[in-house]
Amino acid sequence: MENIEEKNKWYNNIIELFELNDFLSVIERDEKGNPVKVSGISGDVPNKLRIAENENDFEEIYQREFSKLKVATKNINFYINEFKEVIDEMIMTYKRTHSYKLDVSNNRDSDLLNVANSFKEYLDSKLINLEKVVIKDNSTKKLSIQGKKLNISERYMIANHTLDLYKNINNRNISQTEKHILMAHILGCSQQVARELFNGTQQKRTPVREEIINKYLDTLK
Questions:
Q1: How is residue 200 annotated by DSSP?
Q2: Could you give the CA distance from residue 29 to residue 176 in angstroms, rounded to a whole number?
Q3: What gap in Å lies between CA 63 and CA 20, rounded to an integer?
Q4: What CA–CA distance (Å, rounded) separates 191 from 116?
Q5: How far apart are CA 4 and CA 21, in angstroms?
Q6: Where are the domains of the chain?
Q7: Which of 130, 132, 157, 172 is most buried per CB count within 10 Å?
Q8: 55 vs 119: CA distance, rounded Å
Q9: pLDDT tens digits, the chain, 221 residues: what are they?
């Protein structure tokens, strides 16, 4: 009897882990944007999946899930908040898995949990963006350089040149996760994007227009 109960417990843990894992997965694509297929499987060849890594991936999940609902724009905020509650339920279920408990016991960050929380922050940005569209605030025009709105990599570059942002955060006696969270608060981005700014991968996705930023930095000397 004990063996059967242990097997059932193991099976439920795996299912609970896959629920959040599958939800946060997106289709892996090649350099041309075509879906990568899983090789070595007979019959229909499925698309290869990977865990979301950036805001483009979060947008794919957002469009995928909300396309199932046919939600009117005026009701989107309500459904986003409802959607966040569903994610919270999946997170709580995931926290009961052996995989998560093992991470905690070994003082490791849970990558899956970090991505889930970053996606929730992304959903919050959708609420904010919707309100800006309704208000039609033109004040953002004043926050451009040469008529161009700055991307996150460019804001990060300016903050580093003028405030030594990376150095000041990195020198603090706190964990890497806390450093990422602190940077996310300062730059108004998700924890995932802050982590990518730290390791340099975000700058490859959103390149700096140096001809614009360097001229602006020259005016601050």
A1: T
A2: 30
A3: 17
A4: 11
A5: 26
A6: 1-137, 142-221
A7: 157
A8: 8
A9: 444 454 444 334 434 445 788 888 888 888 888 888 887 655 566 888 888 988 889 998 888 877 776 666 667 777 788 778 878 888 888 888 777 787 777 776 678 888 888 988 888 887 755 544 444 444 444 567 877 888 899 999 999 999 999 999 999 999 999 999 998 888 888 888 888 898 888 888 788 999 989 998 988 87
